[in-house]
From TrEMBL:
Binding site for NAD(+): 10-15, 35, 40, 91-95, 132-133, 166, 273-276, 343
Pathway recorded for this protein: Nucleotide-sugar biosynthesis; UDP-alpha-D-glucuronate biosynthesis; UDP-alpha-D-glucuronate from UDP-alpha-D-glucose: step 1/1
PANTHER family in alphabetical order: UDP-GLUCOSE 6-DEHYDROGENASE, UDP-GLUCOSE DEHYDROGENASE/UDP-MANNAC DEHYDROGENASE
Gene Ontology MF, one: UDP-glucose 6-dehydrogenase activity
One GO term of the biological process aspect: glycosaminoglycan biosynthetic process
Catalytic reaction equation(s): UDP-alpha-D-glucose + 2 NAD(+) + H2O = UDP-alpha-D-glucuronate + 2 NADH + 3 H(+)
Positions contributing to substrate binding: 162-166, 217-221, 257, 264-270, 335-336, 439
SMART domains recorded: UDPG_MGDP_dh_C
Native organism taxonomy: Bacteria, Pseudomonadati, Bacteroidota, Flavobacteriia, Flavobacteriales
Protein name according to UniProt: UDP-glucose 6-dehydrogenase
Catalytic residues identified in the record: C273 (nucleophile)
Domain (UDP-glucose/GDP-mannose dehydrogenase C-terminal): residue spans on this chain: 329-444
UniProt cross-references to SUPFAM superfamilies, sorted A to Z: 6-phosphogluconate dehydrogenase C-terminal domain-like, NAD(P)-binding Rossmann-fold domains, UDP-glucose/GDP-mannose dehydrogenase C-terminal domain
Amino acid sequence: MKIKSICCIGAGYVGGPTMAVIAKNNPHLKITIVDINQARIDAWNDVDVSKLPIYEPGLADIVKETRGKNLFFSTDIDAAIDEAEMIFISVNTPTKTYGKGKGMAADLKYIELCARNIANVAKTDKIVVEKSTLPVRTAEAIKSILHNTGNNINFHILSNPEFLAEGTAIEDLLNPDRVLIGGECEEAIEALANIYSSWVADDRILRTNLWSSELSKLTANAFLAQRISSINSISELCELTGANVNEVAKAIGMDSRIGSKFLKASVGFGGSCFQKDILNLVYIARSYGLTEVADYWEQVIIMNDHQKRRFSDRLIKTLYNTVSGKKIALLGWAFKKDTNDTRESAAIYVADHLLNEQANISVFDPKVPHTKVQTDLNYLNTRSEAENESGAISVDSAYEAANDAHAIAIMTEWDEFKTYDWKTIYSKMKKPAFIFDGRNILDKSEMENIGFDYYSIGQ
Ligand code: UDX
Ligand code: ADP
């Protein structure tokens, strides 16, 4: 079966870049990305591609090349579903904030809404592809909704988890380590494999059953996050023993069985996936009565929370046990460099801890809009919106953030931070001037020569 028309529901960090790359490599395929969020769709359609709703290196060029030719953005969800032979579901699946499984399970209400929408609109057979990360056996729920519509339409469900990392999404999509397709119907699996095969070698396209595919995505993220929590746990030991975590990471990473990637100690991992997926894994394991399995993976999250807390505690302790009324500059608000995404960013939690101690926070991030700082803090529900507004502001430059600050905390590893004139920054700050480098991106002796009291992770 050769697919001619695709609809992707959800124009976010996964749906947008993924469909843009599929469109670029399949010029004869018509792809419509739909979303309920009109402002987001308008931004995707903006003639000025610097205004796209998500920042991702290389994305704007591909959108410019494909948009209006075979890639379209629309809020007319029903029309796009009706026309498509294959529908990707790429909506958000946040952790539940209410009811059973609160704080642990994935909230599947957006997925279910999509399934019901497809069931209502479809007049012809469809292949439905799960793209969002979902708990194992979600495909079964989707299947059950679709197959109970009574209109004799055949739906084939595939799981095709996305492994792209933000900030390198385009590169990851163009050169994937593997593409994973889980399903029950060989014809449907091959229809999707055929789309990828226009730029991915066939031996990199894995075919599995549905449940293996769903579980592989959760497991991959759990393993990656586990590496970060492991090295972060060692960073605390390094700070007390005189070992240097960068040296330890290098030494163990040269063992080819361990490998060198994902061993950067940091203020803690963030992003929309790691915490959510592990909580999901823990929740599933608990629901099957697998207490030891659940506890094992939960420890990865506990360690990550500890790392964030430890970072702010160390800052407060070093500043003579009080930050009350002191200006603290946070450089970086995104959860990693080269993205404007802030979901679960360590910066939010560090800011929250410092606000609890009555610090005045000044944030600078090269790509995150000013208003996001307030929205993210308000989302935590720790204090009133007015208190967040008076406690934290977002400014236009690092130099402005550092002006009269007692300390700088580096939250994101943006490359531009390394290029700053740190002597000027030092001259603007209160003395002694402290740097807490949550990403180990600056040179310790260089900073100390300028006059800074420099603290990094695991050294
Ligand atoms: C992750 C997975 O990498 C990707 O395969 C999956 O599809 C989605 O989740 P993402 O969250 O976009 O991708 O970014 P990633 O590069 O994995 O970084 C996640 C967090 O870990 C960031 O906060 C990053 O700064 C942190 N990190 C990463 C470290 O602290 N140390 C490291 O060595 C690597
Ligand atoms: P991800 O990182 O998984 O791509 P995002 O939050 O960036 O997550 O994107 C998900 C998108 O899905 C959002 O733009 C949201 O508006 C959209 N969405 C959620 N529910 C629906 C729905 N029922 N129909 C269409 N779009 C939806």
